[in-house]
Amino acid sequence: MKTTLLKSENYTRSPWKNGGGIFTDIAGAWRADAPVRDWISLLWRFASTPIITPGPFSYMAGIDRLQMVVAGRGLVLKSPTQEFDEREPFTTVRFTGEMEIVTELEAGPVEVVNLMARRGAAEIELIALRGPGDRPLPVGTHLVYAVSGDCGIRLNSEEFVIPDGCTLKVELTEASGLALVSGLAVLASIRPVG
User: Fold this and answer.
1) Is 98 helix (H, G, I), strand (E, B) or coil?
2) Which InterPro entries match (predicted)?
């Protein structure tokens, strides 16, 4: 097990693919042989972003997406064929980057986290950790993001405190166990395929 504390002051910023806003990039991975880190070489990415005004989502061919509201409420994503209800915070929705989606804000701006992965390169999961309890962690990369205030977790028998807004990156080569001890966190899990 390898753990790395990603500090919020070291997060980078980058524009949305369609230029409509700015991501706060928390962690990501790109193909090692790619000359540049861009949407084509992306393997996975975990980021937060505010959604301030209604508008279209970026078109991202070959990308699977998970999204969760972490501040504010009332977000609805609408496509021609379906609606994704994120009105309540900490509800995860899953959709493909090819979907035509427009946001609707029923109660003002929101802050969301996004976990994206190249289809076929990784399997992804995004959940809120809101109460004490144990959960198994499979082999892969796991990001524990302290959403609101410091949070405490236990990995196997080792305890960690994650400062507000920071993220603990956990890289596992064998299955492990995670317990939320205190606070509120979002867990993003990335499991390589193949």
Assistant:
1) coil
2) RmlC-like_jellyroll, RmlC_Cupin_sf, Uncharacterised_HutD/Ves
Close Cβ partners of 171 (under 8 Å, ≥ 6 residues apart): 1, 2, 3, 4, 140, 141, 142
On whether the 9-119 domain is CATH 3.30.70.1140, my answer is no
> Which DSSP letter does residue 93 get?
E
- Collapse the DSSP code of 9 into the 3-class scheme (helix H, G, I; strand E, B; otherwise coil) and give the result: helix
17: its two tokens: 């693919």
The residue among 167, 148, 168 whose CA lies nearest residue 158 is: 168
Helix (H, G, I), strand (E, B) or coil at 8: helix
The distance between the two most distant Cα atoms of the chain, rounded to a whole number of Å, is: 48
* Domain map (residue ranges) of the chain: 9-119, 124-192
Q: How far apart are CA 98 and CA 60, in angstroms?
A: 6
- Is the distance from CB of 189 to CB of 27 less than 8 angstroms? no
Contact present, 133 and 177 (Cβ < 8 Å) = no
pLDDT tens digit string along 111-128?
999 999 999 999 999 999
| 124-192 has CATH 2.60.120.380 classification | no
**One fold for 9-119 and 124-192:** yes
The answer to whether 81 and 120 have CB atoms below 8 angstroms apart is no
Q: How far apart are CA 72 and CA 63, in angstroms?
A: 26
Angle at CA 14, nearest 5°, toward 85 and 122? Answer: 60
